[in-house]
Amino acid sequence: MRKNILFVIDSLECAGAEKSLVTLLSLLDYSKFKVDLMLFTHGKMLEEFVPQEVKILNPLEYTDFTLLNLKEAFLHSSRNLNFKMLSARLKYSIKIRMNKYNSAQEARIYWQNVSKVIRNNSKKYDIAISYGQGVPTFYVAEKVQSKKKFAWVNTSFRLNTKERDYQMFFYDKFNKIVTVSDSAQEIFLETFPNYIYKTEVIYDINNYEFIYNLSRSGKTFDDYFEGVRILTIGRLANEKGYDIALKACKKLKESGINFRWYVLGKGYLEDEILNYIKENGLADHFILLGVTPNPYPFIKNSDIYVQTSKFEGFGLAIAEARMLNIPVVTTRFDSVFNQITDGKNGLVVDMTGDAVCNGIIELINNVELRESIVNYLKNETKGNSEEINKFYQLIG
Domain 217-379 falls in which CATH fold? Predict the structure, then answer.
């Protein structure tokens, strides 16, 4: 008999954890598993890559309710003589606008105000997996009936005492906690040392054949630029270090390098980034491309991939650039050395604009170094789809 598995994730936006989940789903043996997938936000780009064997569950009633404008939400509540969802929505909206919060704080405030109007999942599962921190973890812990529960941690996870104490209540309900790199595990255990015996590492899964095939077709650069193409992929968010990237870009321009730095990503920093570009005359040098479900032709046609993150659980985009033999310049975030050996398959630099700029210039000007890195990349083992075996061992 096939096991029933539920995966829960915020959405299938085009980002690292989401791509990792889609890859994992593409490798599962569906003769052994029946899989449901629950999303808190629907209609994002990577949904088209979900295998047809996976059942994407209908949106939660509250998810649909949040898509109504306030007038529609009020009328809906009046017709049903039930104002609980409207009250929860307003309380969350008011609190979230009062201060700037990090992602852990936002998730807590959301769950504290909204969880009571989110119904329990009525199905009983053999295995339930929260494939991300925050709301997916809270939901699986409180709203799902399952014989076993597993929580994925796919970012560096340092919390203050208040957030640690709040989240511990939920993590206590899981059988295992999976981190996506050794350093992510180490950082998680700094906050939650009591979970040392129920954490393990399963790296974000990369399927080389899938990425290689996608890199050969689809949209890519169309500006006929003949200089050095630099690429960065990541949400337009503080943790991705776009302040560092913009300072590096400004210095590169001042150095006279003929380059364009392209970014695939969307996020709340977009207006701030665009203002910096305008104020510093970088419109021809730092170019926001939005998002695409298939970034691989862009990676394949880049000269250098740059990651300016301040922290990462794993750094999936770096792994993808490596698989397509593109030399990498990356900041020295916690988990970087799980992938990069400085001077061998990329350059690891300090977390400053100057250091990133100097690393890029080194790769451009030092032809021998660049060719050495590319040759090293060509001979690296491609992908890590064997990590699926760890997943099978985990779920039993």
Answer: Rossmann fold (3.40.50)
